[in-house]
Amino acid sequence: MAYAAVTCLIETLEHLLRSPSLIFGIKSLQIEIDERTARRMKRLPLTMGKRPARIKSAEASVPPGALTAFWNMTKEMLTINHTSLWKYLSIFSLYPEAGPVKRFFNRFGRVLGFAELRLMHGESLHSERKSKRFFLVSKSQFFSCRLITKIVLLCEHLIFLLAALEDSTHTCNDHELLKHLEGRLIDLAHRTEDFIEESMFDSSVETKMLNFIIYVFQVDCNILVGRVDFEAEVQKICDKKYGIHHCLQQTVEDIVDIREEMRKINDTLVNGNLKLGDTLNDDSSLSPPAQKNEAVGLDDDLMLMSERLSRVPSRLEVVTIVGMGGIGKTTLARKIFDDPSTICNFHACAWVQVSQVYRLRNLLLGLLKCVTQLKDENCAKSNEELAEDLYRSLKGKRYLIVIDDVWSTRTWDDVKRIFPDDKNASRIVLTTRVGEVADYVNSKSASHRMRLLDIDQSWDLLQKKVFGSQSCNLEFVDIGKEIARKCQGLPLAIVVVAGLLSKIRRTRDCWEGIAGSVSSLVSSGPEQCLEILALSYNHLPQHLKACFLYMGAFPEDSEIEVEKLIALWVAEGFLDKKDSLSAERVAEDYLEDLIDRSLVLIGKRRFNGKVKTCYLHDLLRELCLREAQKEKFLFVIDRRAQSFLSGIKNQRRLSIHLDFHADLQLIPSVTLVRSFLCFSLGSSFVPMFISSFKLLRVLDIIFLSSKYFPLEILDLVHLRYLALTATYELPASISKLRSLQTLVIHGPWINRNQGESPTLLFEYWIMPWLRHLHISMPCYLSNPFDPSRCPLAPRYLQTLSTIRFASCTSDVFLVMPYLRKLGICETKEDFITDMSCRWLKNLANLQYLEALKCSFYKQNAEAPRILRPSVLHFPLTLKKLTLSWSYLPWKDIACIAMLPNLEVLKLKNYAFQGPDWEPTEEAFRRLKHFLVDSTNLENWEASSDNFPCLEHLVLRGCKFLKGIPAGIEEINTLQRFELHYCSESAEISAKGIEVEGLDVVIKSEM
Description:
By secondary structure, the chain is of the alpha/beta class. The chain folds into 7 domains: about 1-270, no CATH class; about 300-450, P-loop containing nucleotide triphosphate hydrolases (Rossmann fold), CATH 3.40.50.300; about 455-540, Orthogonal Bundle (Helicase, Ruva Protein, domain 3), CATH 1.10.8; about 540-630, Winged helix-like DNA-binding domain superfamily/Winged helix DNA-binding domain (Arc Repressor Mutant, subunit A); about 635-725; about 725-820; about 850-1005, Leucine-rich repeat, LRR (right-handed beta-alpha superhelix), CATH 3.80.10. It is built from 34 helices and 29 strands. The chain has a 17-stranded parallel β-sheet that branches. The chain has a 5-stranded parallel β-sheet with strand order 2-3-4-1-5, with helices on both faces. Helix 34 links the parallel strand 28 (about 975-980) and strand 29 (about 1000-1005). The relative contact order is 0.05.
C-alpha cells in the first residue's frame, strides 16, 4: 500500500498548494510581472530540457525594490524540473480568472497609500519607501514562495517513487528489502500527511487567512485605513505556519534516502534473474479483451434444469442448486433466467440475491421491484404489508422466482408463505452453498449439484477468456492446459487466472511463470482457492491495489454504485492523476481495468451501456478483507469482528456492518482514522466518537438518521466526502467544510415553514473544491452574493442535483460555469409562479453542460398547461437529456432533434403527448439510445433518416401504441429493441420483427 500512501500525500500537497493563502501568493507573482514577461515565462518551460535550468536576469524585466526579492524566489522555483513546475506549481493555470484577484491587490495597494498597482502593465512602484511597506505586508507571499519551492521539490521525489513502486510490481514484488522499504515509505507518507493537515490546515489558520482576504476584498478601502494592522495580521498567520518548513525539509531528506536504497535494490534485481513480474509489457503485446459471461461445461446442467422447469407437474416446485463458491451456481441460474424460451413460459420473472447478512425487507422490495412498478409509498410499508402486496402481485400468474445465494433455512421460512400455488406450473430456483439449506427447502426432490469442470472444459473456458474469438497459438496449448488443470476445475479460479494471463506479454516463459505459481498453491482446504485468486491481486499494478481493496468496505453481495465508488476513490486520493484527464475519468479507467481482469463483476449497465453498478464475488471479497487487514489498509467491523477493540488501534479506514440495533457508541476513539463508512441501519444516532476523528476525509452515514445535525461534523475541516440522511434543516455553517468535494444529502428534512420546499442555506459559493452536490429531493438553492465580487468561487463543481426551477438563476449558474451534470425539478411553488420558462432560459449560461434531468410539475393529463417550444432551447453541448411531465405536443420534439451532440434521450411520464408523431425532416443526428416511457402515443412513423445512429430503443408503458414503425427494421445501426408493458397490438407487431443481429426483448404484464 506504499503506492496509495504516496498518492494520498501528493494529493494533500496539491490541496495545500491550492489553499486560499497560497493561491493569492501565486497570483500575486503573476500580477506583479508585466504581460510581456508573462508570455516569455509561459514559453520558457516548454523550451527547458529534462535537466534543471536557470533563468538569466536578462530574460525578464525585474521590478525594483522589494519585488526584486520576489523575482529571485521565482527564479529559484523555476530551477526545478519543468514537468513538476507545470503539473504542481501551475502558476499560469491555477485559477486563471485573474480579474477578481487583480482587483483585490489594487484595493490592497490603495489601502497602503498607492494610487493603484498597475503591475500587469509593467509600471513600477512609486517609491522605494512604499516598496518597503509593500514588502512588509507581503510576508505571506514570501512565505508562500519558500513553501511552494519545498512542495514542488517533494512532489518531484514522490513522482519518482511512484514510478519505482510501479516497476517493483514488474520485477520482484516479494523482495524482503523492498517490502521493508515500502513499510518505511508508508510510515513516512502517513506522518507527513498527518503533520501537514494538523498544522497547515488548522481551522484557526486557514479560516483566518480566508476571512482576512475576503474582508479586505469586500469592504470599502476608506473604512479599512487606520483600522487594520496588515503587518500584524499577516505575521500571525505566518508564525503559525513556519513549523511546516522543517517537516517538509526532513521528509525530502528521508525520501532521498529511500530513493537511493530502491535504486540499489533495482540494480541488484536487474543484474540477477528476473522474476514473474517482468512479464508485463507495453499495450501492443497485450491480449485482446476477453469475452464476458462464458458458460462452459454447463450444457448438461442447462438441459436438466430446463426439463425441471417445464415438466408436467402443475404444482409449485422449488428447484435447488448446490455447490461451492465460484463453481457456477449463479451463472447457471442466470443462463436459465435470461433464456428467451424461459421468459416466454412465465408471466412474471424475478431475481433477488440474498447474502450472509440477510434482511427480509430488502428481499421483499427486490422481488416487488421485479414483478411490479415499485412506487415510493411502498418503501414506507411494513414487511407484512410488502409481503401481502407481493402475494397479490403473483396471484393467478405463472411465475419464475430465482433466490440466489441463500445461507440459512431462516430465509426460506420467512418467504415461503408469500408464493401462491395456483397449480399453474410456477417455479422457484434457489441457489446455496449449504447442502442442509437445499435439503430443508425441498426434501422431496434431489438438489441439482454442481460439478467441477474437467480438464477439457477448463481449458476451453481459459481459452475463451484469454483469446476471445481468436484461436490459441499451438505453443501455448500444452502449458495452457497445465495452468487450467492446476485450477482444479473451479470456474472462478480459471476466470481470474485468465484475467492475469490477458494482461501479460504473450510468451511461453511468461505462461510458465504463471503455471509454476499456480502449482505452488495446490493444496487441500478452502484457502486453496483464495491463494489462486491472490495471484491476480499480487500482480496487479500498484495503482490498482488500493482501489480494489477499498471495495471490501461495502457489504457482501451489495451492488456498488459506480458514481459513488469513483467519488470515494477521488476523495481518498488514490488516483495517479493525468494532466489531460479529470480525476473521474482516471477512476473510470481504473475500474474498467479491474473489470477486464475479472476481479470486479458488472451488476447493472446504464441505458447508454456504461457500467452503473458493480460488485465482488464472495470469494474475491474474502480476499479483499484478508489483504486489507494484513496491510492495515481497511478494517471492517461486522458480526464476525465483535472483538474489534484489539485490531482497530492503528487503522485509517473503518467500515461498519453491524446490525442496526448494535451500540455504535462502543466503537473506540481512533485518532488516525481517515475514512468512516457505516452501512448499518439505525436511528437516534449521535456520533460523539466522530469528534475524535480530526483528520477524517470520508464520512458516509447515509444509513443513519438523527433528529438534529451532528455539530461535531463541522470540526472535520479535512472532509472531502460527506453523505448523510437529513431529517432536519441543514445549518448554514456547513460551508465551513471548505475542502469538501462531494456532498450527498438524502431527505426529506423538516422545514421551518411547512408546505415550502427545503432550502439549502449554506454558502456553497465559498466552497472552492466542491465537485458533486447530490440532494435526493428538490430544494431551493440560495442565491450567492454578487458573484463578480467573489474571489474564490467554486470552479470545480461538476454535478448538481436536484434543485428547483426557481434556483435556475443567472447568479447561481455564474459561480458554477463548468457544471456538466444537472438535475432540476419543478415544484408546486414553481408551478404557481408561472415563471418556469424564464428560469429555464438561464440554462444557456452553462456552456459545458452535458447531462440534464428536467422534471416538470405533475398535472392533470386531461388539462395540462401549454408550454411554449422555447422551453426546449437547451445548451447545445448536451449529450444526455431526460424529460418528464412536460406534456408537450410531438411536433415540438424537433427542438430537441436540433441538439447537435445529443446521444441519449429519455422521454418519461408524458414528456410528450398526443396520438400521432410524424417526425419532421430534422433528424437526431447522433442519438444512440432512445427511451419513450408512459405516453398516449398511438401512431408513430420513423425510419433510418430520422435516427441514422440509433443503437438502442426502448418503449415502455405505451398502452395505446397500435404498432411498431415499419421503418425501425431499416435502421442498420440498431442493435437492441425492447418493448415493456405496452399494448397487445404493439407486442404482436414487435414479434414480427426479424432482423439479423437485432435483439428483440418483449416484456408483458401477463
